[in-house]
## 1
Amino acid sequence: MYRVDPNDHERISIPMETAEIVQSGRSLAVRLPKEFRFQGKEVLIRHFADGVLLLPIDQSRATLEAALQEFEPEFKPEREQPVAEKREAIAL
């Protein structure tokens, strides 16, 4: 899995900004800079690799897929799938 050192964000080739994380009760809130504000009151959220993706609810699946294509290939987590074990059938 490709991991980004949070202290080394300047090394990432994708231009990025920073946002402040604020504890609000038992939840975390992220204060987005003005240029990243969303319309509406809710966003879609997706956890992937070591990050989170936020999209306005009115965005289509095609927009989500296009946004994910912006990440470099090595940013996508690789997953090894072990070979399935041979098991005994369950007697009914």
Note: The chain has a mean pLDDT of 78.
## 2
Amino acid sequence: MGKEKTHINILVIRHVDSGESTTTGHLIYKCGGIDKRTIEKFEKEAAEMGKGSFKYAWVLDELKAKPRYLAGQTREHALLAYTLGVKQLIVGVNKMDSTEPPYSQKRYEEIVKEVNTYIKKIGCNPDTVAFVAISGWNGDNILELSANMPWFKGWKVTSKDGNASRTTLLEALECILPPTHPTDKPLRLPLQDVYKIGGIGTVPVGRVETGVLKPGMVVTFAPVNVTTEVKSVEMHHEALSEALPGDNVGFNVKNVSVKDVCHGNVAGDSKNDPGKHCL
């Protein structure tokens, strides 16, 4: 994947059994993130276990990229996300193939009306929200406009960059406005984990929140006050010349043991206001 496209962090909020794993897995498959042979393998294994509908959901396990989902209900999630600063919203009205009758326009419109009423209450402008009628299992309106819902003419949103109108879930994702990168601020990189890799050494991993991380930089981890040099930086198994805010990276460091730093420590540039222990 490398750096050819802007990286966007997406939060999936849903109620239990809404089909989010199947939808995400099917989207990854259709975008070429996993091959047909692997999908066929999942389909066979799932059928043998009596879980034939799990073949796309297992894509996330194969990629070791299972998202961290929040527990609870969709309304609570929407309120929490908006309160925490998530202002761009896409609503995938899933399982349209399971309505009565299948692909019911009436049921879709009922859901859109109900969700619009709620998001208004929490402060979200419905005009900025893309509603997409989809089937995560069958792939309707994920990459291509589905013939099963001729009544669905697509979605239209208003944003600070103007108006946008498309038809599919992928197009809705592509219309997300990337956040501004606070590269001018001091480096802050909270550690998600720390690994010891044979032949390489200690590799902390985490997401750059502010600033820039580069090979050759001297960083200090707070609050343990461990200082070391960054030997290399990688994302998706590709070496980077620099990592920017929003990038989830691993970086190899010199003369540091996995016991010296841990999850929750914050890496900062030793020469530019590194993090400090607060009492």
Note: Residues 20-174 form a domain with the Rossmann fold fold (CATH 3.40.50.300).
## 3
Amino acid sequence: MTENDNQSVHAKRTAQPTRSWRNYLSGPILFLHMFAFVMSLTTSGLYVPFYISATLFPHRKVSVSTGSICAVNESVASPETETIQKKATEFNIYVSLVSGIPAVIASVFLGAFSDRFGRAVEGSTGGFLALLMAAFSYIADITENNKQRSVAIAFLEIAVGLGLVLGRFSTGYFIKATNFVWPQVAACCIYTVVIMIIVFVLPETRKPKTPTETLSKKMSCVRHVEKIFSFYVSKSAERWKYNICILIFFATGITAVGRSGVDILYQISQPFCWNSVKVGWLGAVIGLFQNVICMGMIKVFHLCLNDEGVSILGSISGISGFMITAFASTDVMLYIAAVVGGGAVLTLPMIRAIMSRMTSPDKQGALFGGIAAIETACYIVGSLIFNPIYSHTVSIFRGYVYVVMAGMVFISLILLLVLVLAPRRLSSTYKINDHTVIKD
């Protein structure tokens, strides 16, 4: 090796930022935030139908400590129960619009700004998906562009899963012991702790080089928003891959983040009539299998599969889980669906990793900003699709909405096959045109 080569290697090594234990706080931050988010979401999801029941049917005997909307000694679905579910789905739609539209706008701007101003900006000013986006961008800054990044993203998903598991598990007992108020108070306190850690403890990975750069007039909002959409409209040869990936992400995402309100209504009404503790237990099992066990096995899956293969496996698992849920009539079937469908969550982090692998370091924030905006849009669109479907089919076939969800995941499976097979077909075409085909 020449002296110039030695100097080049030394320069690359010294250019890498030094990392301390504080650089790995993105996982604990996501855990705490997810714990608070799930606690607040579950409490709201159980309180809304209870409030509607108490308001519309004040003489109906429903236990406040259980969270179920089934009346005492009610064995079959009554017109009152169906009315409560329909009103609750309407409220879910309003909430998704009010909270989702501002979150989409925030995700679009904050993701691109974080590439220049730093990840803490979006991490402490956005909602859950904005924080998730910031964490993924943060990991992209401190990992190499290979399977190491896929594993790191998977570990973030595990942190999310642990927060989800413990949040859902504890919320059911919390509500049973204290009613609906104190879980929300606890969630607010945890949010405050998260903000303090982001602002005062977590080190920044992308700092402006000079104060002049920070105030540069080139930092226009239009330019940053253009960076987000440039992946999907540019003349790059990779554009079709970006478009396929974001369609896969959208088709899968609307079932992952748009189902929460429907799930709770499905469980607390006939034939299950679950209380808050049972809802929490199933949520914990789903989170355990999806975000902890399956995510923890990504390293094992990578021994024989690439990111695309793991995504296909996740889609097949998701379709199976939704179909079992659609026809479930007992508690055991819901738990079987949770286990069988546990791999559904694999598709989203793998698509993130695939897209991140195709993207340069200075555009990671813009990429994940766009993904977070799509994920927020998934929450809105999923709520707009699944809540009305459930409302209009609850008296005919309660599980129909889950058949629709399975169909959406099937669409993403088809697109994944296109993503895998199209490059091979194009490669074969180029070989034929260049007369390089090898015959037996």
Note: The first helix runs from residue 3 to 15.
## 4
Amino acid sequence: MLIIEQSDGATIEFRYVDLTNAGSTTNSVFEVGFADPTDSNNTVRIPDSNGDPSASELLSGKSGGSTGVWSYSVADSGSPSPAPTPTPTPTPINTIQPDPPWGLDRIDQRSLPLDSTFTPAGTGSGVTVYVIDTGIRTTHTEYASRVVAGYDFVDNDSDPSDCDGHGTHVAGTAVGSTYGAAKAASVSGVRVLNCSGNGYTSDVVAGMNWVRTNHSSGDAVVNMSLGGGGSKSIDDAVAALTSANITVVVAAGNSNDDAQYYSPARAPTAITVGSTTSTDARSSFSNYGSTVDIFAPGSSVLSSWHTSNTASNTLNGTSMASPHVAGAAAVYLGLNTGATPAQVASALTSVSTTDAVTSAGSGSPDRLLYVADFSSGGGSAGGGGGGGGAGGG
């Protein structure tokens, strides 16, 4: 290591590679030194022309010639070996969760039986999941440290507290530390449904538009575990969100009917999710059809609940399937920053597990959510799943 300290702006010339000319100048106010960390006898400092009594023995290294010209060559002409650069400790991109809820256990493996672990490809760090629903319990221990601002369109205030439980359950499945697929994603509650789980189309659209207007940085996913009859205004609001590069994941609906008749399930740019049981059969209540993009666990799903900061509950519905996919979308975006909604949808469907979902329903895709690896392409459960007939259970 060559050390040169210059105090008056004089030009200093040196060759670092072999140190044959350690330094030269027409001004004497500088210091040249060589430090060898492995050999203190090979470490020197040449003092300035004013002398340095503590290092007077080094004055012999001063070259002859006019006053103020300095040159010094290290005896072995060798540059010392640089100290090795410490290898940083890698930051893990995924974690292994033992004994997860069955839904998480299912979506990180291709086939049954379950292996009692959950190992997603990532954590969803840096991504915000907006839960447009009944609000969320913002203090729930499953995600309290990752809550960001939301809004309540029922009471028209900035406190999206949940008095129904549905939204809190959905949030837990998307981002919860125990129940969630994306364990490091942030979450925002957007309350558009009342304490009975009902609401107005106008409030749903207002909530969607609020997300589009207020999301300011980073990638985002909207989960909508709600639905009703076909609505152009809701479909248009979905299109506006995806045009703003916000991925939208929606429930297919619980009417055991073709999802094409319901909004937001029928919205072309949304990722529409049907529900499966622990045996990979389509849940008897789940809507189906070509509008459905993918299936995920939705029967008997355990997640957070609104009655206390640690409460949990088990629910059924495509409302429970949808946040599994929303969490998976957040995981993908955490690993692929800036991916478009179309790219997210393509990634999730292309790596999904085939030959798994039985009695999927007429026109439904044979695709079950998979989150363990987004780089390997799809895989088969090998179980001979299939579309089945309309209304199959």
Note: Confidence is low (pLDDT under 50) at residues 1-32, 43-81, 87-93, 384-393.
